[in-house]
């Protein structure tokens, strides 16, 4: 980073960005993994109707608690890699800016390393965001599979083992390694464009450069983000996908069906031959049709 302000503010600005962005992230994750929604507006309307505004904030607490740590690993590894590559300290760098190829490599390495802190938190976030139970559950309706982030972490650990907590981490690595490189190159380039040589960019410029760097990196990251979210949700069904390539080429609608243990529903394709299930569906009606994508 060419600004010395960045490390001090990254914790709180990261958390603020997260609260503002989380409702959109929830809509994104649901559209990536569930087949019940026709589009963004449909997903927003249904979420609001069934779960109220709070539905958009499901799964937010662990990311808030971990963002400072994940970002300090990212920026720490980035800075130290850049230091090793260019042999110039943070101060000297203002007079002697690092080359873009060094910025890219340092960004990729930072992105690669932070994945191993981010992966378990991101997995729990995605699982909780996909729980579409309403705030006030009708009497007799099944409880959500996970009661909260800690229960979710413990359940995944018990049901899927420690490696279960890293489900989707390989796709996350493929998503973040190159795109963090893109993030830092775009950020550096925009800061240098808008600032005279040897000076620190103003806070407003840092904000704008960071925003555009985020857009550029997300534009590239989104396809692998879809795969990552699907692999994370498919965790409960062993063998649902054989890996990243299999997930890329399979029709994900075939995997959305009712979980017989929890009676939660994913997607719109439900098995036709289960009469108990169709009775269950008829009696539960539409509200359960929007329910969780949990694969048995
Ligand atoms: C993929 N891309 C590089 C664009 C952004 C990665 C964002 C990672 C972030 N720390 C998080 O909490 O998810």
From TrEMBL:
Its keywords, alphabetically, are: Membrane, Mitochondrion, Repeat, Transmembrane, Transmembrane helix, Transport
Per the record, the domain of life is Eukaryota
Q: How does it sit in the membrane?
A: Multi-pass membrane protein
Q: Where are the Solcar repeats?
A: 1-84, 98-193
Q: Where in the cell is it found?
A: Mitochondrion membrane
Classification via Pfam families: Mito_carr
Mostly located where?
A: mitochondrion
Q: Cross-referenced SUPFAM superfamilies, in alphabetical order?
A: Mitochondrial carrier (SSF103506)
Query: Which InterPro entries did the record assign?
Result: MCP_dom_sf, MCP_transmembrane, Mitochondrial_Carrier
Query: Does the record bear Transmembrane in its keywords?
Result: yes
The membrane spanning regions, by residue number, are 56-79, 99-119
The keyword Oxidoreductase is assigned to this record: no
In the record, the note on similarity to other proteins reads:
Belongs to the mitochondrial carrier (TC 2.A.29) family.
Name under which the protein is recorded: Solute carrier family 25 member 45
